[in-house]
Amino acid sequence: MTVRKAWVVAGAAVAAGLGFVMLLVVGVYVVAGNLMNGVGGGGRALAKGAVPAAYQSLVQRWGNLCPAISPALLAAQLYQESGFDPKAKSPAKAEGIAQFIPGTWATHGVDGDGDGDRDVWDPQDAIPSAASYDCTLAKYVKDVPGDATRNMLAAYNAGAYAVIKYGGVPPYKETQNYVKTITTLQASFAAPVDRVEPSQQAAGAIHFAQSKLGTPYLWGGNGTPEQGGRFDCSGLTKAAYESVGITLPRVANDQYNAGPHPGRDELLPGDLVFFSTDPYNSRAIDHVGIYVGGGYMIDAPRTGAVIRFDPIDTAKYFGATRVTADGAKALPTGV
User: Fold this and answer.
1) Phi first, then psi: what are they for 23, rounded to 5°?
2) pTM over 0.70
3) 198 DSSP assignment
């Protein structure tokens, strides 16, 4: 956590400042209400820093391999499978950043970097292989009615034969959930092309955070009675959205993937705002707060401080996420 100058400190001296911020919040809520009929946007370009810089060009290039996939969709699959960890290994013996099992790799692994070998542990091979495998599956089900991307994802999960047999996504709960998860999660990796719709739960999340102003910070704090009701930064944002029925991951860098990413000039109250020492890698995010309007957030800054209002425009500002219920549900629990 980075030490930032407090805009408001505990005590009676903050009353006037708190009133001013509340006016900002109310004012921006009015704007948010006027935007409730806005249209969310997608896009083939990747959102800033959503993919670690080491893999960004690979995902951008291979994510355009065929019309059934996109860079954001490929990124969503990699995040879902391994959290971009090239050393990941599952109990089912799936290996690498794309989590290929040995039999599938033997058939569908490609030499993406042209160095003469196919190495499942090398993202330069595994990421192109994941895209190539997706496109191969899309070819298998190309004559099936319906959306080509959804059919491809269903074939990835249930096999091409099941998609052909049922004329689309088969009636398997696991497969239907997988298709929804990846198509939803891709929104958090795509750079929006339009203003994204405000979250209906935003006001409640802010109300919760405001009720905790002045509470001392606790590293690892989740607000439990045993912890004296104290929070760290991501514990506060998790609890704030949990209070309105949305369950977020525990750590800030995973919370970044809970929805689409509005630009700095599109922020609305309730958006999560993130901070990092690496402006090109969302996996390096180390702080999060809840935006309240006027360039300020409520956050739990650091040991020795209290939950308070802080400005968001610092050198570490990384970006923002407009939390959605579907986006939060799509997040994997094992990354």
Assistant:
1) -65, -40
2) yes
3) P
DSSP strands (E only) in the chain: 272-276, 285-293, 296-299, 308-311, 317-321
* Residue 167 falls in which region: left (phi positive, over 0), alpha (psi -120 to 50) or beta: left
- For residue 97, what is the DSSP state? T
How far is the C-alpha of 71 from the C-alpha of 117, rounded, in Å? Answer: 24
CB contact set of 104 (below 8 Å; sequence gap of 6+)? 133
Query: What tokens does 73 get?
Result: 């969709």
Residue 195 pLDDT grade (very low, low, confident, very high; cuts 50, 70, 90)? confident
Give the tokens for residue 94: 């799936």
Rg (CA), the chain: 21
Alpha-carbon gap, residue 60 to 64, rounded angstroms: 7
325 vs 11, more confident: 325
Residue 10: count other Cβ atoms within 10 Å of its Cβ.
15
Sign of the CA dihedral running 300, 306, 312, 313? negative
In 3D, which of 147, 131, 124 has the Cα closest to residue 70?
A: 131
- Distances from the Cα of 220 to the Cα of 33, 301, 309, angstroms: 34, 12, 20
Both tokens assigned to 279:
């402006």
Helix and strand numbers, DSSP H then E, in the chain: 12, 5
- Consecutive H or E run containing 28: helix 15-34
In a 3-state reduction of DSSP, which class is residue 23? helix
Structure tokens of 190?
């795509």
Q: Residue 167 and residue 272: Cα distance in Å, rounded?
A: 40
CB within 8 A of 34, min separation 6: which ones? none
Max CA distance (Å), the chain: 70
Closest CA to 236 of 264, 208, 201: 208
